[in-house]
Amino acid sequence: MQKPASNKYRPFPPIHLPDRQWPNRVLTAAPSWCSVDLRDGNQALAVPMNVSQKLEMFEALVRCGFKEIEVGFPAASNTEFAFMRRLIEDGRIPDDVTIQVLVQAREDLIERTVESLAGARNAIIHLYNSTSPAQRRVVFGLEKPEIVAIARRGARWIRDGVHRLAGTRVRFQYSPESFSATEVEFALEICEAVIDEWQPTPENPIILNLPDTVEVAMPNVYADQIEWFIRNLRNPAAAIISLHTHNDRGTGIAATELGLLAGAHRVEGTLFGNGERTGNLDLVTVALNLYMHGIDPGLDFSDLNSLRQVYERCTGMIVPPRQPYAGELVFTAFSGSHQDAIRKGLREREVARDKGLTPFWDVPYLTIDPGDLGREYYEVIRVNSQSGKGGVAYLLETEFGIELPKDMQREFGPIANDAVDKLGREVRGPELKSMFWAEYIDRTTPLQLEGFETEGRDGVVRCRARIRQDGQARSLEGQGNGPIAAFVQALVTGGVPRFELAHYSEHALAAGETASAIAYIQVRHADGRTRWGAGVDTSIELASIKAILSALNRS
């Protein structure tokens, strides 16, 4: 049995903010973004990226539109330093992209970091040190004044060292690591101490990155921390408030969105949430959450499949199939009712477009148009044993042009589901078509058509048909007001139990003179039973005759 939680764990204390404003705010614009895939994401990999993989990832991030990219910890290793120099010396950094580098508050590391940036056009030097009670007690064994002194010294070393970077626009960023677990008063105190060293202005602001390094509370508490911090900051106009959330409680995205409501301006994270433990913030999800609310995120994820391939190739990680927006199955509906609703929603949009209208996206179960992300509509619906008639009909129509009448969908849907249930797996369009053909088109017993001719005079059509019934050849004749009526009369006269046609429809399967036509016919027997049949032929007349026999054979 699990041990009692109250004997071992305690709740995180809330922030006293009775007049909090963030719950009443609405996001209307995107934040600025900083990717930390090449640093925070890379350090979380079992096998870190090599230089060529980091270059490929960097170029992918640039294509997405990231203007700030934390490219590494150049003082940590020769590989990190070499990658930084490769970016700069090969001219791989666009003029409008700022590279960011991380460094601890140590003089030797700061000197190496500054050295790595020589020749860069735009750079952010990101200083950090840990501030939470557990870090102060367990890791450093230091009191608050000594932790503040570490931050001050680091800020001073950076300030005094950047004069060597002639021609480089350098901006400063400070992170009180483990901010979310730090007393807000102390987090503010140490940030103000760094501000005193760097003397930012509204024209040249400091970036104060307030990380949810380890999620220890509900996301509303993080929002309270951000709002309290901004309210009590001495000169907020000279600071850019940045968020950097992790996902230990599974609420990193929620914490970021609430933190933005609380007044933050900037967001750090990684593609698809790669990061230590349960991961960093998923930048793709947050950006597309804004996009599906009509807000331009300033990032381009219109070819999400290709981006996912680059990510998986470079990191060795796999995007889960249910990952928001990017996962293989997120635009897939297995439930029959979902499939039917999606199909109707997509059809509604087609009708609106045909009328010249451009309605807002409002398709049931799809929060965003898959086409906006480079996904295909055929990915929307698949069929397994849980699927309904809507999904079956959708695949037959979109892949093969087979437009089943509504009542026929109700008949074939359960038939297909039974077949899929026996297979015990998902089926694709070609398999579904084969099931339909076996059930309707290829039915040749007990009745099989061998020949059919008609002639008409004075509004009356006479037919001569040759059929094989239970293996025996037979010739039938009949007349009516059309070929179908004449054939029905010939069958009934020839001894087939009386029936009538309850529904008839047909359409072409493909364009061109040699294209096949498909006919759908529902027959009603004297006892009230109904059955559907279908026939395919290059002649619509013969397709209709075959459909009648199909329905009778299925009876």
Q: How does this model look, in words?
A:
The protein has 555 residues and is an alpha/beta fold. Helices cover 39% and strands 20% of the residues. It has an eight-stranded parallel beta barrel, surrounded by seven helices. Strands 9-10-11 form a three-stranded antiparallel β-sheet. Strand 10 and strand 11 (472-480) form a beta hairpin. It is elongated. The mean pLDDT is 93.
Structure at a glance:
This protein has 17 helices and 14 strands. It is α/β, with parallel strands linked by helices. It has three domains: 31-315, TIM Barrel (Alpha-Beta Barrel), CATH 3.20.20.70; 336-439, no CATH class; 447-553, Double Stranded RNA Binding Domain (2-Layer Sandwich).
Write the layout of secondary structure elements.
Elements: E1 32-35, H1 37-43, H2 51-64, E2 68-72, H3 78-89, E3 98-104, H4 107-116, E4 122-130, H5 133-140, H6 144-161, E5 169-177, H7 184-198, E6 206-212, H8 219-232, E7 239-245, H9 252-261, E8 266-269, H10 283-291, H11 304-315, H12 336-354, H13 389-400, H14 406-423, H15 429-441, E9 447-457, E10 460-469, E11 472-480, H16 483-493, E12 499-508, E13 517-525, E14 530-537, H17 540-553
Parallel strand pairs: 1-2, 1-8, 2-3, 3-4, 4-5, 5-6, 6-7, 7-8
Antiparallel strand pairs: 9-10, 10-11, 12-13, 13-14
